[in-house]
């Protein structure tokens, strides 16, 4: 291994930062947390495997090696990686297109999907593309998770009631349920209904009841969180005692007692091509969800996570899942919160959890034989109903129509067409609405506030203006998406304005002028010149001015570039009577090439010839 | 027809604006222009039909009804609509995926493509979506057209030399040419080579030679523009006289003498699904090209065009093409410039051109029998080499790396993978690079310029600062793509800064704060409060403040919102010793809810309670 400076090695292998200072106290804390999380994860892994259309043991396998891989490369101390609800739903949607659930082809395709996702995440991490997560706005993420929660809950009504329901979207699910409601197995419905009722009571009242009975807060909390385990144990015993597995109640059945196998994902080009887009969507959604959880938990302890390193950690985890009989995984909210609340301090807690689950996979699996799927369905429904939060719509509606459109659109498309279409719609809507909004920027005509050097919107303030000079403050960068709109607007304002001699574009809010906008400014310059009006700029930012000076635009400019709007106004209102010279005017007060006195110059650091550094 | 006010009717049917005032002078001008354009268009229509893989008469049909449809609905006075080089290339690429060139299926699919494109354009026009054209930046358009020109020229080497060459991308074309170079027909190559040489001479030297021989400028110009027609006539006569059509020279062959037929495009769902994306790309590219041409020509005469109306005009034209045996069309540069230069004043010139071509289609087609395809190929090559302009790369490199990446990427992808991939890459690159750039905005720490009220970048100017107060001016709107970056930056700046008590975000360049950014500001507020630092805002724009006031953010804000940065600095540097109060501070100088004196207020129009209108 090449000799790298310790700091680089620390960044690449975050495990070094905590493993070297591991203490006995850390060990006991992590160990205790691991016990609690393992107990919680046994039913959850089985449930999410079922949600993903995978055999139950795949859920356990997917919770073992991936979390160890994350512990080596991830940057969060308490994130727990494994199967999660939304990603499992997306997995089922993706695999359902290429294979029949329950077949060997399906399970094999799941390995390919996980490995693909892992490779993509790793590649993005190495290319430091953590910023792609930024292209999902909060409202869109919230809307997507809400709609996914609804889809998951509806889909689980099938196993809950003992009817077969398949569908990747709300219309398909409703069709499926409606058609089969007559085929109910009353025993399954009974088990499912009782589990649901019990879990609901646990979530809402158990903690209070236990506290009332005198239990301490920590114990009450721990017992309340173990509701699903209690339901699993109780229903398994009931089915075993009553022998209902032969009376129509679907059970988990035989779960091989084994450690995660070493598996090779299929590398057929056709399969990769079919799964490429779903893998990308799963990677992005998984990453965004995981990073949100990790950041929330890190903030509690004043820790910070590194998004690019998180990509590498999650990539390694998914590759591990692909090579050990699992399916796509990511950092999960419920399991991570439980991990953190249970006292975990380092990722070693995750490693111990993995060992605990491996042990359970070897030893406890015979006990799962009689576990009814209806109970697992009930645990999923209760878990995801916590994800559904329609209040985001009301918040967005009150604040920003663009955000509201994005979140409402995302929810609708996800419900109507499934998760892949939904998240794609969310990204496109977020970006599209942002572009649309910035393609119609706010432009204020401004005037001078008497007695000051400030300029304010003529529509909102009492200001001084001059009929020969129009100042337009453009509240947006000038780039290809808004160029045409601005050209139109400026030309319209300067048409039918007799006596108008000078147009000033106040660029205090212009952070960029790209090539398309530059071409448009040149065209505008010519247009206005034909009408006998000069074009001037004021308050151009340093980086923007640097670029303009590398072009011929400033030479062609009929007017001047002013450092401050006040200077521009002062100079041009005194020159108003002169009209437009055919030659470009001298650069005023810009220091670009001129010697002028004025308060703006006494404090420069001598960088004036390079432009307005403001 | 419902009774609409005349102005609405004028907008919907632009024909009304010029038809009602049509004079005899207009008639003679338009008529003359039509004669010139018709003569030019006969070979060009055949050539572009060949380029699109269509039978030659389709080119003539596509130049008749579409231009009449445009004349009714389009907003340009001089735009000539018909087959153009780039769109014909895209047509061939799209149809090549669904049928074999030269078959009836191919021609039928072309009708569907044109009708689809027409319907999309019409829909976009009715929804006033003209702004979608803005999402192609100038450099990307220039790069795409340049690369398309290269592809077209390479592809035409086949017919020019008499070898069969097929390919939608440069690698395919080079493969095809390399493989067949031994199968050359020397006669074809001779004709092709002579045509090419003649046309090159015409383009470069003919006008000068004619002027030298004493011809007037207008006559010289007209003769120079009719170079292709001369080449066509000469080579047709040569082939006919020498009977070379039986000696290996491919000729146009039998062209039915007929008016455009009434055809029904196929409506099979499978075909529509396959052609939907290509139709969309053709619509957008055609629209962008057409609008550029129309705007350039309109600017010469101080006219303006309406992009949304142009969508409707082009939509009608393409629908007409689909129902009259044509293929996708748009406003063409060469034909429109010739039209305008020949003196056209209204779209009636286009109608007369259509009539002229219909006449030619009925009467002159037998004369085309012996027209060698090599000559048509030569006319195309000469025409498109005028489109190739690699200087855009140099310009972009010098001005903006983002623009350079977008144009270079577009050119490369177009050459390597074909036009559809190329234009898609161009759009994605333009938008993606813009988002990437605005996700890493320029943030300047600013200080007070002594003796003034201005604040400038501490790195570029000598300014006054205070260790207890940090002011960050964010040169970008706050939205989902840059939220994370800014959060990191602000937290980093305020970490390890002993003595820091107040952070001011100077929002003079912040045009929007979306929900994601709002959440981040709230989180930032909390983070800083935990560190004993207050968060303040200054110079918040009116529309932004209006929105913030509808949320609870301002109540939670530990600091205050100041109208001017100077006020913020003044107040906070005097309070620096006090430290952070747990309760939100009073809103200073904002007039939001406070009575403060100061020069900023004497001139307000009384709208202060609604926020800082600046």
UniProtKB/TrEMBL annotation, chains A, B:
Transmembrane segments: 32-52, 58-73, 105-127, 139-164, 184-202, 222-242, 275-299, 311-329, 349-368, 375-393, 405-431
Main location (coarse class): membrane
Family matches, as Gene3D superfamilies: STAS domain
CDD domains linked: STAS_SulP_like_sulfate_transporter
Pfam families reported for this sequence: STAS (PF01740), Sulfate_transp (PF00916)
Ranges for domain STAS: 459-572
InterPro entries recorded: SLC26A/SulP_dom, SLC26A/SulP_fam, STAS_dom, STAS_dom_sf
Protein known as: Sulfate permease
Organism listed in the record: Tabrizicola oligotrophica
Highest classification ranks of the organism: Bacteria, Pseudomonadati, Pseudomonadota, Alphaproteobacteria, Rhodobacterales
Gene that encodes it: sulP
């Amino acid at each position: 291994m090449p000799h790298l400076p310790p700091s680089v090695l620390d960044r690449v292998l975050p495990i070094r930062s905590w493993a070297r200072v591991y203490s006995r106290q850390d060990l006991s804390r992590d160990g205790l947390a691991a016990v609690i999380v393992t107990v919680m994860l046994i039913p959850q892994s089985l449930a999410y495997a079922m949600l993903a259309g995978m055999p139950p043991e795949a859920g356990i396998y997917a919770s073992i090696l991936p979390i160890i891989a994350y512990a080596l490369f991830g940057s969060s101390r308490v994130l727990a990686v494994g199967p999660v609800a939304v990603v499992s739903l997306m997995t089922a949607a993706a695999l359902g297109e290429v294979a029949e659930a329950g077949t060997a082809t399906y399970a094999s395709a799941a390995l390919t999907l996980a490995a693909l996702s892992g490779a993509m995440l790793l590649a993005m991490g190495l290319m430091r593309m953590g910023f792609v997560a930024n292209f999902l706005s909060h409202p869109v993420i919230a809307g997507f998770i809400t709609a996914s929660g609804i889809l998951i809950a509806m889909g689980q009504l099938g196993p809950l009631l003992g009817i077969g329901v398949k569908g990747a979207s709300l219309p398909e699910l409703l069709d499926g349920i409606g058609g089969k409601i007559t085929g109910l197995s009353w025993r399954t419905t009974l088990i499912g209904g009782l589990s649901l009722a019990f879990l609901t009571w646990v979530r809402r009242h158990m903690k209070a009841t236990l506290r009332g009975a005198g239990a301490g807060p920590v114990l009450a909390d721990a017992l309340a969180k173990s509701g699903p385990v209690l339901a699993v144990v109780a229903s398994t015993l009931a089915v075993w005692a009553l022998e209902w597995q032969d009376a129509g109640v679907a059970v988990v059945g035989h779960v091989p007692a084994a450690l995660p196998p070493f598996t090779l994902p299929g590398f057929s080009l056709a399969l990769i091509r079919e799964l490429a887009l779903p893998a990308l969507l799963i990677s992005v959604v998984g990453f965004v969800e995981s990073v949100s959880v990790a950041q929330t938990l890190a903030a509690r302890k004043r820790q910070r996570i590194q998004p690019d390193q998180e990509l590498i950690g999650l990539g390694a985890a998914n590759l591990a899942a692909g090579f050990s009989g699992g399916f796509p995984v990511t950092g999960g909210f419920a399991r991570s919160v439980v991990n953190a609340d249970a006292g975990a301090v380092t990722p070693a807690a995750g490693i111990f959890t993995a060992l605990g689950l491996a042990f359970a996979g070897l030893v406890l699996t015979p006990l799962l034989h009689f576990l009814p799927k209806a109970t697992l369905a009930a645990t999923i429904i209760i878990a995801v109903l916590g994800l559904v939060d329609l209040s985001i719509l009301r918040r967005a509606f009150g604040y920003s129509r663009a955000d509201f459109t994005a979140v409402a659109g995302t929810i609708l498309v996800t419900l109507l067409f499934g998760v892949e279409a939904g998240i794609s719609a969310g990204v496109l809507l977020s970006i599209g609405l942002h572009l649309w909004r910035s393609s119609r920027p706010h432009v204020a005509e401004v005037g001078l506030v008497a007695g000051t050097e400030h300029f304010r919107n003529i529509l909102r303030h009492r200001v001084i203006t001059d009929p020969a000079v129009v100042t337009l403050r453009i509240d947006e960068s000038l780039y290809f998406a808004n160029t045409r709109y601005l050209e139109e607007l400026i030309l319209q304002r300067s048409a039918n304005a007799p006596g108008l001699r000078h147009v000033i574009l106040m660029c205090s809010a212009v952070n960029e002028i790209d090539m398309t906008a530059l071409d448009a400014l040149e065209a505008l310059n010519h247009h206005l010149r034909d009408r006998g009006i000069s074009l001037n700029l004021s308050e151009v930012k340093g980086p923007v001015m640097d670029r303009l000076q590398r072009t011929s635009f400033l030479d062609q400019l009929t007017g001047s570039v002013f450092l401050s709007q006040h200077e521009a106004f002062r100079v041009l209102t005194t020159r108003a009577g002169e009209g437009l010279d055919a030659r470009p005017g001298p650069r005023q007060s810009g220091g670009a090439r001129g010697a002028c006195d004025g308060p703006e110059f006494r404090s420069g650091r001598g960088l004036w010839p390079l432009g307005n550094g403001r």
